């Protein structure tokens, strides 16, 4: 969105914070405790003027502070009888119960920056500064594409050699949680079909997320097809587990293409580690990397970054990550037991309880 500025001071006048009476503190200092009520200053009315400093004005929350007054005494601390107001306090402070003009923001201050995500709070501020219309970034058009002849629809009964689609729905739900809209597609493992359908998808979307077809199998056509369609490969393969075959590139039109390994745990991990970071950067969103303490010792021998599935608990005032080891990147059910991935570095094999590592949550 565009930068949004304060069109005037916040608050725009010295604002009464409590229902009560407004007085001149100089009279209090002289010992005056009883005041004659001249009138009332209501919210939404022009500023009243106290004509006699020995008197007071009744005031309402949100009203302008009357001219000639500098203290507001709430009704709970005043006894009012007819036109007389007797203050029941031992002491007062100048400017008490008064919200001074410009103390929140000054006219011209930046209230919201281009990277701001709109929530009900931002909508309230936009209304306050009179912005009935505001320029915002358009939503990215995102496609989720599954490939594979072994996949069938949710409603279908799979043959013994088939499985139901799950990755595309997991990705769709994850993106919906992040307030992104998506289109979901499935393409068979046939090079000609893959080429013709991906050509259309690339032309109609800003981000394409593929699941499957990026390893070294004889029917893993995705990298070859993407190249033929003008998608420049930035990298193919990352020294990590799970998700080692991960592929990323960009079409000559600017469309970003993420080709994730088809195993569900690999898909999950690569999405939360890489795709989410890309989408946030595209919208100018910045955030601190979450971290957690490893709750128990863990070892992993290969020289790869290892994304350990963990259960996150809050203990002793800090996040603790309890290992939940599954049976590999195809163990979809193990995702139910965990909440996140803890990124363990590739430079050693032994990791001790209490060490802190980057955390990628999916709950």
Structure description:
This protein is α/β, with parallel strands linked by helices and 363 residues long. The chain folds into three domains: 18-96, Beta Complex (Molybdopterin biosynthesis moeA protein, domain 3); 148-282, Molybdenum Cofactor Biosythetic Enzyme, Chain A; 291-361, Beta Barrel (Beta-clip), CATH 2.40.340. It is built from six helices and 26 strands. The protein has helices at residues 25-29, 120-128, 167-177, 191-204, 222-228, 264-282; strands spanning 4-5, 15-16, 20-23, 34-41, 55-59, 71-74, 78-81, 84-87, 98-99, 110-112, 142-147, 151-152, 163-164, 182-187, 207-211, 231-236, 240-241, 247-251, 256-260, 291-294, 298-299, 305-315, 318-323, 340-344, 350-351, 356-361. The protein has a six-stranded mixed beta sheet. A six-stranded mixed beta sheet has the order 14-11-15-19-18-16, sandwiched between helices. Helix 4 (191-204) crosses helix 5 (222-228). The longest helix has 19 residues, at 264-282.
Summarize the entry for a quick read.
With 363 residues, this protein is α/β, with parallel strands linked by helices.
């Amino acid at each position: 969105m565009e930068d949004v500025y304060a069109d005037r001071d916040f608050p725009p006048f010295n604002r009464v914070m409590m229902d009560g009476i407004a007085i001149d503190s100089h009279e209090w200092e002289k010992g005056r405790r009883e005041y004659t009520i001249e009138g009332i200053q209501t919210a939404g009315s022009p500023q009243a003027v106290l004509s006699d400093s020995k008197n007071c004005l009744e005031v309402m929350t949100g009203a302008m502070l009357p001219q000639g007054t500098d203290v507001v005494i709430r009704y709970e601390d005043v006894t009012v009888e007819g036109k007389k107001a007797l203050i029941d306090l031992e002491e007062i402070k100048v400017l008490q119960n008064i919200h001074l003009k410009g103390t929140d923001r000054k006219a011209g201050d930046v209230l919201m920056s281009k990277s701001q995500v709109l929530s009900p709070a931002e909508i309230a501020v936009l209304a306050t500064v009179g912005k009935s219309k505001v320029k915002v970034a358009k939503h990215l058009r995102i496609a989720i594409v599954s490939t594979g002849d072994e996949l069938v629809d949710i409603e279908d009964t799979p043959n013994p050699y088939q499985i139901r689609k799950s990755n595309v729905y997991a990705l769709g739900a994850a993106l919906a949680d992040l307030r992104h809209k998506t289109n979901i597609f499935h393409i068979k493992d046939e090079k000609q079909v893959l080429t013709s359908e991906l050509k259309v998808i690339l032309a109609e979307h800003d981000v394409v997320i593929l699941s499957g077809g990026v390893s070294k199998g004889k029917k893993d056509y995705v990298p070859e097809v993407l190249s033929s369609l003008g998608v420049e490969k930035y990298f193919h393969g990352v020294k990590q587990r799970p998700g080692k075959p991960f592929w990323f590139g960009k079409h000559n039109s600017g469309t970003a293409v993420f080709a994730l390994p088809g195993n569900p745990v690999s898909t999950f991990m690569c999405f939360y580690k890489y795709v989410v970071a890309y989408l946030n950067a595209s919208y100018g969103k910045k955030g601190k990397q979450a971290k957690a303490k490893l709750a128990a010792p863990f070892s992993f021998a290969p020289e790869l970054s290892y994304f350990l599935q963990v259960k996150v608990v809050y203990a002793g005032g800090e996040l603790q990550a309890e290992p939940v080891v599954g049976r590999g990147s195809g163990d979809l059910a193990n995702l139910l037991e965990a909440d996140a991935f803890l990124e363990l570095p590739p430079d050693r094999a032994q990791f001790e309880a209490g060490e802190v590592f980057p955390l990628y949550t999916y709950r």
